[in-house]
Structure formats: C-alpha cells, structure tokens
From TrEMBL:
InterPro entries: SBP_2_dom (IPR025997). CDD domains: PBP1_galactofuranose_YtfQ-like. It comes from Clostridium thailandense. It is found in: Cell envelope. This is ABC transporter substrate-binding protein. The keyword Isomerase does not apply. It comes from the Bacteria. The keyword Signal applies.
Length: 334
C-alpha cells in the first residue's frame, strides 16, 4: 500500500513538473473552476483523462466536458490530454489518485491494459466513470458507470446507408479507413459494418488500413489506396469524418469526384463533413454525439449521492444522407 502511494505521489510530482515546464511529459493537465475540494473542502473534483485532440469530434467533446464547472459551480474539473498515448492516460489517472479527486472519468484511447491502474483507483475508493470509448477489464467492479455510444450500431448504420443506395446484390469494391487500432470506436464500428455486409455476397473490402482518426493520416492512406487501386474503388467507408475529409482531398487530387465516382460514408457528424455533404462530396453520415459534459455531470452527481440510476448510459444519435445535409447544417453544434 505504502509503496503504491509513494508511486502515485511520484507520478503526480512528475506531472506537475512537466506542467510548469510547459510540455515535457507529452501530456498537459489543466484545472478549471476555483479551489479544489481537497483544499476548500467544498467543491467536488472530477479528474478527466482525455484521449487527445485527434479529431473535430474530440475537440467538441473536450469543450463539452470543460463546461461542467460552468453548469454546476459546485464542481471542479482537472483535465488531462493524453495525446493518443495510453501511458500518458495512466500517468494522469495516478496523478488524480494522488490528488484525491472525487471522481475519475476516463475516455480510454484503447480498450485493454487498464486493470492495474483502475484497481489502484478502487483501492483508493475513487469511483471511475468510463466515457465515450469503453475498456475491457477482468473485474467489472472496477467500473462504476459507462457513458457513450453504441459503436457497433454505428457500424451497422453505416453499412445500411450503402445497402439502401446500391441494394444487396450490387458489386462493390470498398476501401475502409479504420480508426485507432484497439479502440472501441474502431473495433465496434468495424464489427457492426462487417456483420451487416455479410448478407451482400458481392460487397468486397479490397483495402483496409488505419488512419488513426486524423485528417492527415486519412489523406495519406487514401493516397496509397488510390495509387494501387484507384480505378477499382467505388465506396469509401471511413470510421470517422476527419479521415474522410482528408480522403476527399486525396480523391480530388487524384482526379476523381468524391461523392459521385466514389460513394462516401463516415461516422461523427462534424460541421465540416456536413458542409462537404451539402456540397455533394460525401453521401452519408452516422451521427456520434460528443456533447457528453451535461450527462457526465448528471452521472457524477448520482454516483456521489449514492443513487446511480443506470450503470450504462447510451448517448442519442441519428443518421443523415446527402438530401438532408443542407437543412441540417445550421443545426449542427459541433
Ligand atoms: O468517432 C473520432 C474520435 O471515440 C467516438 O474518436 C470517438 C471517436 C470519434 O477520434 O472522431
């Protein structure tokens, strides 16, 4: 026990040094809302370990989470950006434990590898709420609650947009841009999509590679796909909008018309993608809601008052096609 506490304190010290150095540990931590509960004895503190800043979806989620102290001044938020690295997120959790936060909220970059650090949180009696992506742990009691989307359902919805357009018997060569390997968003979306197209004997995924959910990598990987199979690909299935935005640039540079020569479907629903769809350059969006701050606050209050209503809370989302893009654009909040 003593050793563990020392390790946690050391991790906190390393973190605060890197904070003051400006970057250092490849991870940044910030606090919003005044005085922590550990010093004032009043405010409840949520420590949020974020994945990174890889996409428009992520930026919107971070902004929504940072609203928490404004929505309820009895709450303070400690926010850490893991820069897409699990090791940074583990350090952040250890620092939150050392700072004795009231709740740890984790948006995990990948699903596996959290057992040890979440056990440390449990040993220190700090409830853990998993947000957005999920974790796989042997002991479910390490998790107090989960809030996020049904990623498998999103993959199914993406496949259905394609089936609705072309029918089950069409001959299609599909290029797939995968999200971060081992993340729930990638694993779930792939599974849901693959299972749904099993009914379509001539749908073939001829290219499939990760673009790590970023525009830059989406573009780079699509360029490589086009170079080898540019004349064969007629559908692009992208696990998120940002990679599709990058891929659309690659398709245009290659001399093809995105949305016409290549039918494009992606997940998230960021404004940039709605704009591209309104311009006729993409064909379908499966919405994934990043505005999770208010729901996280609500669940945190339930947990702290000992009245958790539901251990698994799903966020609400829809599906949009090209004909709806112009009308929906002014309503987009992210
Ligand atoms: O779709 C993607 C982001 O985990 C749901 O992560 C999230 C995904 C989102 O990078 O844009």
């Amino acid at each position: 026990m003593k050793l563990k506490k020392l390790a946690a304190l050391a991790a906190a010290a390393v973190l605060s040094v890197s904070m003051f150095a400006g970057c250092g540990g490849g991870q940044s931590t910030s606090t919003s809302g005044s005085q922590s509960s550990s010093t004032s004895g009043k405010k409840k503190v949520i420590g949020f370990a974020q994945v990174g800043a890889e996409s428009g979806w992520r930026t919107a989620e971070t902004a929504s989470i940072k609203e928490i102290p404004k929505l309820d001044p009895n709450f303070e938020l400690k926010f850490s950006d893991g820069q897409q690295k699990q090791e940074n997120q583990i350090k952040a959790i250890r620092s939150f434990i050392a700072q004795k936060v009231d709740i740890i909220a984790l948006d995990p970059v990948v699903e596996n590898g959290w057992d040890t650090v979440l056990k440390e949180a449990k040993d220190n009696k700090i409830p853990v709420i998993i947000v957005d992506r999920n974790v796989k742990v042997a002991d479910e009691s390490l998790i107090t609650a989960f809030l996020g989307s049904d990623m498998e359902e999103e993959g199914k919805r993406a496949a259905k947009i394609i089936i609705d357009k072309f029918g089950k018997d069409a001959k299609l060569n599909i290029a797939e841009l995968q999200g971060t390997v081992g993340s729930t968003a990638m694993v779930g979306r792939k599974k849901g999509f693959d299972e749904t197209i099993k009914d379509c004997p001539n749908y073939k995924i001829i290219k499939s590679q990760t673009g790590d959910f970023t525009r830059a990598k989406g573009k780079e990987v699509m360029e490589a796909f086009l170079k080898s199979d540019g004349d064969k690909i007629n559908v692009l299935w992208s696990h998120n909008d940002d990679m599709a935005v990058g891929a659309i640039q690659a398709i245009e540079e290659y001399g093809k018309k995105p949305g016409k020569d290549i039918f494009i479907v992606s997940v998230d629903g960021i404004k940039d993608m709605f704009q591209l769809m309104a311009d006729g350059k993409s064909n379908g969006i499966v919405e994934c809601n990043p505005l999770l701050g208010p729901q996280l606050l609500d669940i945190s209050k339930q947990v702290l008052s000992g009245n958790l209503k539901d251990k698994n809370v799903k966020s609400k989302e829809g599906v949009f096609t090209q004909d709806q893009a112009k009308a929906e654009l002014p309503n987009r909040k992210y």
